[in-house]
Each structure stands twice: as structure tokens, then as C-alpha cells.
Amino acid sequence: MKFEPETYRIRDERMKPFIDPEEIWEYIEDTKNPEKAEVEAVIDKSLNKQRLNLRETAILINADDPELVEKIKQGAMALKEKVYGNRIVLFAPLYIGNKCKNDCTYCGFRASNKDAERRTLSDKEIVKEVEALEDNGQKRLILVYGEHDDYNADYIAHTVETVYNVKKGKGEIRRVNINAAPLDIEGFRKVRKSGIGTYQVFQETYHPKAYKWYHIKGPKSDYENRLTSLDRAQEAGVDDVGIGALFGLYDWRFEVMAMVRHTNHFEACYNVGPHTLSFPRIKDASTVNVPDKYVVNDEDFVKLIAILRLAVPYTGLILTARENAEVRNAVMRFGVSQIDGGTKLELGSYATSKNEKQNLNREQFAINDNRSLNEIIDELLDKGYLPSFCTACYRLGRTGEHFMEFSVPGFIKRYCTPNAILTLTEYLVDYAPEHTAKKGWKVIDKEIKKLEGFGRLEELKNRIERIKQGERDLYF
Ligand code: SAM
Ligand code: SF4
After folding, report:
1. pLDDT per position in the chain (476 positions), as tens?
2. Residue from 150, 179, 319 to probe ligand 1 pocket by mutation (most atoms less than 8 Å from CB)
3. 10 Å Cβ neighbour count for 40?
């Protein structure tokens, strides 16, 4: 028989998919009321730089005693400080088109939402949007699309190339990530060639029955097709993938376990975990129809982020402007590595710099952090974070960067911190108002002091001067 990988079904009917709801619930049931010592042992394992297994993750989930929850939060904070330092990578989403043939009951773009104003940006409009984003200092974007025949692999690749070609003043986009419908292997290959960074596909809910309930029409209603989509990406050579669950659709404890299981699956099959985990909470949307049974309150939200940090210590965690500034500030210290800034969801709204109230008929969902990129950078600097626009690993082909940050001694000092400093320098020179620049230079001085003894310190200082003299895009 001819071997045709393209037509090969990853799962046949006799096999269970790698998410087994009964197994996940068993772990959660079997680890109820854990002893303090058990919880501490799990946290210690993570602090010793080892990924947690499902049982250990369940132990943390079941640690309800306030003292134990505090220990989990402290553990996540310690891990973040010990391993990653205080860098926060910034990006912005760019919505390309909101036509959609699916009917996800939580989303404003759902096909049955007749109030939605459908629009796809023309190439010219994309250029205008990207110019406006570059004018703000953005270097990393995630392009977002509904699921529609118009947004096929060729079109996605075309929009990625369009974005990379926009250079305004000293501005340029150096990394384009994607959040779009899953593709077939050939489609992933095409998009990969356009030079994407991460391809994100969120499973939304990992529980098959709940999934069915929310995804009532269209290709997305096929749970397994979605669950295995990033395996197809891997087969096509897209090894930089992002997974996520939409919190509020089903029990958060189950979703956390399933994300860890999904991570283990990638490690077992491809020797590399997902690049990022996302954990959006459902927000208001036009015609949204989601029962409030599984709403995740702020307390559980913090706890679940801390658990994810400990369970998969070397994976990037993304927190978006769906959350308000207060929540974002509160949870960032538990291990978040990327946030968006200056976010606008309405198609075409970066260029028109509209600042009016959100119109949910034109946008996917409500955002709660409307601060500009500079306001966010200001606040990050005030809190001692080091804002970064670094794209070095991806452009030098250093894949698995989070894993290296985590496991290669000195990697952060050699690469991440210097590159964060260099990209912040560009921002301060090119885009920051005086008051931000002042704070920024102070933070840079502080970070440089921490690098004393680092072999490339002189070279780093030299590059900062070269950027001040007009050179750009210098990285280690
Ligand atoms: N159409 C593609 C898909 O479904 O994979 C692109 C994704 S959609 C434009 C981006 C993500 O937004 C979804 O995967 C979902 O997790 C999230 N989302 C949808 N509706 C939301 C809502 N009401 N509140 C918060 N996030 C939402
Ligand atoms: Fe379409 Fe994605 Fe919204 Fe579902 S979540 S309706 S697929 S845009």
C-alpha cells in the first residue's frame, strides 16, 4: 500500500485521543485534600526545574487551604524570579478579518450573529494598520482571523508577507504570530514559508462533550480535528505552536490538567513542548450565549496561572487585555512572560486612532485594558519590569527558546536580558516621551549593573551607543 502521510489519520477509531476526560477526573478525585508536605514536595520539584506530571498538577489544583494556595503563589513567583527575571515581552493583536463560518456560542464573530459588521482589511488597510502600530513602537504582532474560505493558507501567508514588508521610519515588524483556524498539513507548510513565529490554536475547552455544546456548526465543531491540528502543524515543520483554553466554558481544573496533558503529548511526540500557553477568560461579546456555571473568579484565575507556571516551568505564558489593568498587574508576577499593549480589536482602528467606546458588533469581545502601549510600558518600568520587544531567538533559528532560558545556565544573562535592553533602548530613542525615557534609562542602568561580570557587557554598552547613533536591530 502506498504511504500517503497527507491522508493519514492521526487517530483511528480504536484509539483513545490523548485527552481522556475520565482519566483527568480520576486524577482530580484521587488527590483530594492533599497534605501540606505533599503540596510542598510538588512545588519543590518545580523549583528544581522539573516539569510536573498530571498527578502532581492535580495535587496543586486540590490545595484549597489558603496557606497552601499562598505557597503555590509564592512558588510561582520564586520560579519566575529565579528563572526568568523581570522581562515582559510586548506585542499587539491585529485583526485581519471577521468573516466566520463557525458558530461558537461565546464569540461575537459567530456566523449566526446577524448584527456583526463583517469586514476584511484590504492590503492597503493592512499597510496602514501596520504603519500605525510601528509608529507606536510595536515590533511583534499576532494576526487574527475568523474561519472562512477567504482566509485560506495562501491568504494568511500573503497577509504575513504584507506585514513584514511594511517599514515606516525606523519601524518594522520583526515577528508575526498567527491566531487562525487550523489548517491541513499543506496549508501549514505554506504559512510556515511566509516566516511566521508562533501558530496559535486554542482548544477552547478540552472536554469533548462541553466542546460539542459550544461549537454547534462549521468545521470547528469537530473536536478531534481541532485537538490534533497542531500535530499537523508539527508534521508541516511548524514547531513553534501555542495552545490555550478559554476559561469559563468548563471546569477550570479540568482545563488546566488538559493543557498539561497536551504539553506532555507534544514533548513525547516532538521532543518540544508548546511555545506558549494562553488562558483567556470569556468576556462580553455580541450575542454571546454561555451559562455562568463555570465562570472563573479572580481568586481561582490567579491560582490557575500560578499552577500552570509551576506545572510547565519552561513555557511562555500569555496574558491579554481581556483582563483589566488591575488584574493584569496582580497576576503578572506569577510567571506571565508576554502581554499585549495598546490593543484595539476593531478592524482598521489602529490607523484611525479611534478611542471611542467599543462597539461589540464590530469586535470579537470586550477588552478591559485600554491603555496605550506607552502607558503600559510606563507602568512596567515603575514596577521594575524590563519591557522587551526581543525577537532574536526566532530570527536566529534558536527554537525552543523558553526551554533554553530555563535549562541552559546563563542563557538569560547572555541573550535575553541584553536583547531586552537593546530593544528597549530602540523604543526609548524612537518612540518614548521624555518622562518614559527617563524612567527607561534608569531601569536599563539597573539591569546593566546586574550583568557585571558578564563577558559581553562592554559589547552591550557599545551596542546601546550604536543605537543612540542611529543603528537598529542589534541583537545577540
Ligand atoms: N477563528 C479562529 C479560531 O477560532 O481559532 C481564531 C480565533 S479567535 C478570533 C481568538 C480566540 O479568541 C479564540 O480562540 C477564543 O479562545 C477567544 N475568544 C472568542 N470569544 C471570546 C470571548 N467572548 N471572550 C474572550 N475570548 C474569546
Ligand atoms: Fe469564528 Fe473563531 Fe469566533 Fe469561533 S472563535 S466564531 S471560529 S472567529
Report:
1. 444 444 444 455 555 679 999 999 999 999 999 999 999 999 999 999 899 999 999 999 999 999 999 999 999 999 998 878 899 999 999 999 999 999 999 999 999 999 999 999 999 999 999 999 999 999 999 999 999 999 999 999 999 999 999 999 999 999 999 999 999 999 999 999 999 999 999 999 999 999 999 999 999 999 999 999 999 999 999 999 999 999 999 999 999 999 999 999 999 999 889 999 999 999 988 778 788 899 999 999 999 999 999 999 989 999 999 999 999 999 999 989 999 999 998 899 999 866 667 777 777 787 899 999 999 999 999 999 999 999 999 899 887 777 777 777 778 888 999 999 999 999 999 999 999 999 999 999 999 999 988 788 999 999 999 999 999 999 99
2. 179
3. 15
**Looking only at Cα atoms, what is the longest distance across the chain?**
69
DSSP H/E element including 380: helix 373-382
Using the atom order of ligand 2, give the atom closest to the CA of residue 146. 8
Domain 81-396, CATH homologous superfamily name and number: Aldolase class I (3.20.20.70)
Domain spans of the chain, in order of start: 81-396, 410-468
